[in-house]
Amino acid sequence: MENENLLHKVLKLWFRQKSEDGLEAKLGYRFRDPELLAHALVHRSFLMGTDLPYESNNERLEFLGDSVLNMLTTEYLYKNYPNDPEGDLSKRKSAIVSGHACAQSSREWDLIDYIKIGKSEAKMGGRGKETILADAYEAVLGAVYLDGGLEEVRAILNKFHFPRIKDIIVADDFVNHKSILLEYLQGKRRTSPVYVLIGEDGPEHQKVFTTEVHINEKTYGRGSGPNKKKAEQEAARVTLEMLYAEDAASAEAEAERGTVADTKPKKFNKRHVGLP
After folding, report:
1. For FRET with 149, which of 34, 35, 163, 250 sits at 20 to 30 Å CA-CA?
2. pLDDT (tens digit, 9 = 90+) per residue, 69-110?
3. If you average pLDDT over every residue of the chain, what do you get?
4. CA nearest 44: which of 60, 31, 30, 32?
5. Which of 62, 135, 138, 147 is catalytic?
6. Gap between the Cα atoms of 82 and 224, Å rounded
């Protein structure tokens, strides 16, 4: 209990010294209880190797903030996309509340400068990890909700997150190339793609994965990314481009064959209809 109280005092002092005119100013919201915001910025790695309780990290606030973000996003989409069916609304929501979108919004606050993480995590590039940024972003929303209520969170999202919705939805990161490729192949060629991991390079915290798409034992697109999922998405995107090019070439060849056939002299039956 003594250690926990000490942590609270340190967090409150650290926060007021560092972010009174920084993070709160960027948010446009001043906390009644600054400890809430400070708490939202403590990553679990910061507590490793200490006697401080595990619950003192920001994961509980992140859990709360995630629910608030989901609810307000649903409300926003319902009001602003009145003609969209449920399926389209769900797709939009999935993109808007994604970790990638939250991490992007967190950069508007320079949140990376305020998160407290462990030394080992920092050495592995933890400050730049989307998961850490996104979790802290949701934890901050949770802290605002506890401190000021739903209207304050809504105001922050209306200012920072929701104006980016159109960009988020059309961003290439949210196009599911793998799903499009699967539908294309099953519809046109009655087959499915096979993703083959062919490379894994770089240090543990900055690995680059390379994947190829095989279709009926033929190699098509190749893609790379910071994880297997993104490498597969890129490989699928490249493969789709190759398949579309094949389709275009095939259609052009068919058209040329049709033109040639039309220009050949037509053979007529020497018999005239109606004559003996």
Report:
1. 163
2. 999 999 999 999 999 889 888 888 988 998 888 988 998 898
3. 82
4. 60
5. 138
6. 39
pTM of whole model > 0.85?
A: no
Q: Is 232 a catalytic residue?
A: no
Say whether 172 is catalytic. no
Superfamily of domain 2-174: Ribonuclease III domain (1.10.1520.10)
CATH number among 3.20.20.70, 3.40.630.30, 3.10.20.310, 3.30.160.20, domain 177-263: 3.30.160.20
pLDDT digits (tens, 9 = 90+) for 217-258: 899 999 998 888 888 988 998 999 999 988 888 888 888 777
pLDDT at 213: 96
Domain range summary for the chain, segments of one domain joined by +: 2-174, 177-263
Tokens matching residue 195: 């993703």
| Encoded tokens for 5 | 């109280």
How far apart CA 151 and CA 79 sit, in angstroms, is 16
State the Cα angle at 91 between 168 and 81, rounded to 5°.
Answer: 80
